[in-house]
Amino acid sequence: MSFNPDCDLSGTIARLFVYPVKSCAGIEVQEALLTDTGLDLDRAWMVVDARGMFLTQRTLPRMALIQPQLKTDEMVLRAPGMLALHVAIDAVEAPATVTLWRDTVPAWDMGAVAAQWFTDFLGQPCRLVRFDPEHQRLSSMEWTGGIEAPNQFADGFPILVASEASMEELNRRLLAAGHAAVGIGRFRPNVVIAGVGPHDEDRVELIRVDGGAEGQVHLQPVKPCARCPIPNIDPATAETNPAVGDMLRIYREDKRLDGAITFGMNAIVRQGAGQMLRVGQRIGADLRFD
After folding, report:
1. N or C: which end of the chain has fewer CB within 10 A?
2. What is the pLDDT of residues 164-178, one digit of tens each?
3. What is the pTM assigned to this prediction?
């Protein structure tokens, strides 16, 4: 099927990010395999406390300093003052049960060495767990319109989409107010699109990606992404400054979420699981007028 540019918006995929360990640093990639649960290995691992409750930068900003690297058969984690931790991608040690928001799900514990590494760096008892692929954790069907859209340890949906223009608009406002510009990594998107206007991603019905001979990929934005304090955390230093959140509060209250502050759109995979997403691929989308 040839790509049809006859749509309200057209642009390209500008950047792609994978976050192997929930709430740790992301990896920018030039291409990524798309699966039903999002980009391959995105939020496949998660850090939990001694009770199996998930941990994030919301309470432990130092998690931002943990840098993953994906190799063929292992993930390597590095953090300041720590020796590298090597985690086999296809090996787990013991079954576990963990809690993420309202969901209690089966998982796989990654063993004592990984647990001690995270415990030492984060300063409290921790375990590293892997999502159990035999379990299906569904996105909220209230927002998907009844479509079953699985995800792994993401907060709620498989893909987060944001645009370069939305980031540029925020930075324009920050600079005008005397603050430093910030990077889009603070918002932890998976797919960053270029060629559209600020926050156009809020209003699109379906994002169609030109997959060439493989056919189109369809990503459907379904829910605005409500923002917690994580965008206030500098990924390079783990230091917190409220300037980003304060600025968003001025112009990003979203009536769809009862006035919550939003940036970016949560999306589900409607077509194209098993295909590659690549930086530079063309996209097209039609605007939704509610």
Report:
1. C
2. 999 999 999 999 999
3. 0.96
